[in-house]
Amino acid sequence: MTSQPLDQDDEDMLVPHSELMDGPQPIEGPQPMEVPLPLPIEGPQPLGGPQPMEVAAQAENDSTVENQAADEPQTSRFTWMIENFTRLNLKKLYSDVFTVGGYKWRVLIFPKGNNVDHLSMYLDVADSGTLPYGWSRYAQFSLAVVNQHHSKYTVKKDTQHQFHARESDWGFTSFMALSDLYDPGRGFIMNDTVVIEADVAVRKVVDYWTYDSKKETGYVGLKNQGATCYMNSLLQTLYHIPYFRKAVYHMPTTENDMPSGSIPLALQSLFYKLQYNDTSVATKELTKSFGWDTYDSFMQHDVQELNRVLSEKLEDKMKGTVVEGTIQKLFEGHHMNYIECINVDFKSTRKESFYDLQLDVKGCRDIYASFDKYVEVERLEGDNKYHAEEHGLQDAKKGVLFIDFPPVLQLQLKRFEYDFMRDTMVKINDRYEFPLELDLDREGGKYLSPDADRSVRNLYTLHSVLVHSGGVHGGHYYAFIRPTLSDQWFKFDDERVTKEDMKRALEEQYGGEEELPQTNPGFNNAPFKFTKYSNAYMLVYIRESDREKIICDVDEKDIAEHLRIRLKKEQEAKEDKRRYKAQAHLYTIIKVARDEDLLEQIGKDIYFDLVDHDKVRSFRIQKQTPFILFKDEVAKEFGIPVQFQRFWIWAKRQNHTYRPNRPLTPQEEAQSVGQLREVSNKTHNAELKLFLEIELGPDLRPFPPPDKTKEDILLFFKLYNPEKEELRYVGRLFVKSSGKPIEILSKLNEMAGFGPDEEIELYEEVKFEPCVMCEGLDKKSSFRSSQIEDGDIICFQKYLQTQNEEQYRYPHVPSFLEYVKNRQIVHFRPLERPKEDDFCLELSKAHTYDDVVERVARRLGLDDPSKIRLTSHNCYSQQPKPHPIKYRGVEHLTDMLIHYNQISDILYYEVLDIPLPELQCLKTLKVAFHHATKDEVVIHNIRLPKQSTVGDVLNELKTKAIKSCKCRIGAKVELSHPDAELRLLEVFYHKIYKIFPLIEKIENINDQYWTLRAEEAIKILHLNTCMQSHENNLVFVPQIPEEEKNLGPDDRLIHVYHFTKETAQNQMQQVQNFGEPFFLIIHDGETLSDVKLRVQKKLQVPDEEFSKWKFAFLSLGRPEYLQDTDIVSSRFQRRDVYGAWEQYLGLEHSDTTPKRAFAANQNRHTYEKPVKIYN
């Protein structure tokens, strides 16, 4: 993520990084109203690439040096008085050299402009020509032309830049108009003298790659796994609450626990490393203990939600241990919800606990304003009276007061909220102030309930500020923390920790707008502002009276001994690994394969070639070691005397096979290990691969290997059993190149355990990449004529009669090796349960689409394979791909499993009620049918040809109604009468957005997000059925009530929606709709009182509850409340009522429907998915 600039007060040149913007973006460049011309300056430096004298949005790139300052900036002002200015005859002019921060600078001007009609002015590195290669320095600076009449009209411009050899000067090509500069009445030239001022602040730039957080700050950071900055900022905050860290250390764990499977142990390990490591710490063990996979680590979540989920999980893990209740002791507070009647003695209270408080940002200037709003009293009166049990409806006061606050107060700032008008999440970047000290006892304890313990002093000091930089769809998290509550703040930004001052931790995280200084003061040009997208998102305060207890000492004695031992071993192993790598150039790794390895691996781990070298014994030998001494090591390891050892060099052949090629010569064995590796290994890696040939006598004792001539060939043999489908290694033989396979048949029968006269078939295993080549070997041809050489592999099996072949799946070696090459175990999961394996099948990658679905159908006991529909697996999201595989849409199983460059082993299946080819020609709509008079909704899946119309859908529903009437089936369409007419509506977020014309094609109707609702329809001639469609709805079919079918000329058909007002969101009390919307007839001259009776009857609401409802006319979300005597039809003058969804009759009452989490549409931009900790 791009960081914030160094000092935002001097940030007139900067705009936020474009990727983090959320809305209109200011113009980039040196001045909002200027576009610098791409003209090079003249000067001694070669000017290739970007123009060094243009600012042109460079600020956003340079902002990456944020917080790379190890020390406070060194600042100085240089004043340059240029006499005889109007008589200057130079194209450019340099000032005297001045020094700031130990660096030499000068100002460069073009008195007549750098090919523009403006004064051009730059800051220049004075000694750039003599600086060493790779030099770099960073400065924030302002350049000014002083107005000598009135200083307030001085023209001043600020910027910042990373100076280096290619960009040794930086500034403004169009600083100010020459006409203004040379105008005697403007005051910039007096006595033919111009005064220029340069304010320069130089910071020591930290090289990110060499920066040592531990050395510079005493703390280390956390590595980012992909998008885990939100988690890192929270973990650092929790770690730096020592009481919490100590409690984590005291959670019971055992030496047998594994961090990846134990959240307590993983957190203990993480905290230990943060406390004692010298470098940044990885979080993979912790996320694995959460049950997260790689995809979760690349999914950014909400830090507030993670905080709650992690706290709940730790609270659960601490139960029954010595630290049970720690989460409550630290973070739990209590408040009291109350409703108190004004005119009678009745009060209802409910005590609730909290671990954090959600504070409004919108409409609040600071924390105190948010607390004022939190405890704000709401009056329940008029139509909103409170039902006070035996006292009936009463005027009352409703509010919240705090019983107690926790020692560690976590404040979640509501920077994100849902905008119902725009139907999207938005980020609130308003300025919001928070103090270093927070006094919650202020104004006589206005936030406290009567039951609160007033002896506890609720004075808090700020411990940490968690910051979100970016917009609603993404961004970056980091934290400002002062671990000991001293004046020194630290910024924890993933791996990097830097020292910070209080201004950066507090004021610069308030948010709001940044105003750029005016370009030409006094000329009535509006100031240019931009929104600051980095702001505080979560605050942690610690109560002063609990300070000593919470900021306690935590040392090794608080850490379980087994944990200390385990982590020290890990550290030692890590150090050994580092040392191992550092010394790797001094050693050679020798991997020695033996017959025992071939016997163990062939037919189990491998089938092709001879051995997996990663699974054989390896030796790490110093390169200078003579090879003969290495043979001594082998003798000790394997118990084979040196004189009985013969080593073969492996070679990679052109066909990508890897075989023993030749024995080492005596001359080679006389060399050092390092020399031998260089001779044998052209790829120059550190490994030497050898095959150890040992000859054993009948008594299994070794004897010296036989002399090998050029005529001798070493062959390796594998035996195949088609009945068991088994391939195994049976040994090796030396043969003469002039000899013939027929001469060794008896020996091969002996090796296989066959009778001496068993007829066998021989095949040469030639290669297996990219395809298998295994060819029959002519028994009567010589090995030489068959091109057999050292290291070749011969596979053999019993001879099969043709009539016997059919009883085996793979009767011969070539077919078996082909099968092994393409064998693929596939895990099949039902699409509706995508996390659960249902069954596995062993398939071939070469299987066709028809082969695969046939095998699946057979496994499921299904007669018709065409009713199987498969969906591929997304390897990154670990979810099904959004679109299923079309019928014969892929050729082979491999095509089903591949996802970009990865091969999956998972497929999802569905069993359809009709064949897939037939289904693909149909369109399926999910339609919710609403009865005209009954409060019931039945969901129907309507399946019709894609070219069908809405009229066809409604006819299908009517057909279901007839069938259900005759058959009396359960899920039915019940009409008010047989001739009832239906209409199809599109509903989204409890509003009706469209009535579908009967002739509209269903192919393009999207029911994945919108609700399609069917109901009995209204005959009304003036209806406009071409309503504007809103994105993402569901369709529903309501029955048209009888009263709507005979409308008078002055009757109106209006939209009626339920709503509440969300007072907690902001002071404007946004309207939020809920429930089922409907249409209602409004007769001419009808009062609200009459309408209420019909609404109550339609919705069947009890009198007591209905008496609390309010009725309002709403236009564009603004309610105008109606009285019983108001004529309702006068508000609804529009006749195209089906298009008037933005005007409706609103029924305001509480939403009593069961609440469920807001499920944003998958195709819409959503901020994140819910955080889950699975273990």
Automatic annotation (TrEMBL):
Residues 75-200 form the MATH domain. Its EC number is 3.4.19.12. It catalyses: Thiol-dependent hydrolysis of ester, thioester, amide, peptide and isopeptide bonds formed by the C-terminal Gly of ubiquitin (a 76-residue protein attached to proteins as an intracellular targeting signal). Keywords: Hydrolase, Protease, Thiol protease, Ubl conjugation pathway. One of its GO terms (cellular component) is nucleus. It comes from the Eukaryota. The keyword Hydrolase applies. CDD domains: MATH, peptidase_C19C. Residues 1-53 are annotated as: Disordered. GO terms for molecular function: cysteine-type deubiquitinase activity. It is an enzyme of class 3 (hydrolase). Residues 220-544 form the USP domain. Residues 27-49 have a biased composition (Pro residues). The keyword Transit peptide does not apply. GO terms for biological process: jasmonic acid mediated signaling pathway; maintenance of root meristem identity; protein deubiquitination; proteolysis; regulation of protein stability; regulation of root development. This is ubiquitinyl hydrolase 1. It comes from Escallonia herrerae.
